[in-house]
Amino acid sequence: MRRDARPAVPALVRALDDNEDDLRYFATRALGNLAVEPVQSVPALVARLDDRNVEVRKVAARSLGQFKNRAKVAIPAL
Hints:
The longest helix has 14 residues, at 21-34. The protein has helices at 9-15, 21-34, 38-48, 54-66. It is globular, with a radius of gyration of 11 Å. It has 4 helices and no strands. Helix 1 runs antiparallel to helix 2 (21-34), helix 2 (21-34) runs parallel beside helix 4 (54-66) and helix 3 packs antiparallel against helix 4. The protein has 78 residues and is mainly α.
């Protein structure tokens, strides 16, 4: 299933820059649940660690954890 979800990643990454907190939250959560396309997803999630909304920041940290060793570049930001 996760391989089939790869086409959704660009749209989810774009949604991370939306003004709506809920949209950013759920897009961040979805990227973590999918844990695919780390080259695109991980930098976008790292950027959400500085989100204005605390819930988005928390879910970004959890989502990065779903990538396991594919998210090593995120360690300094955490």
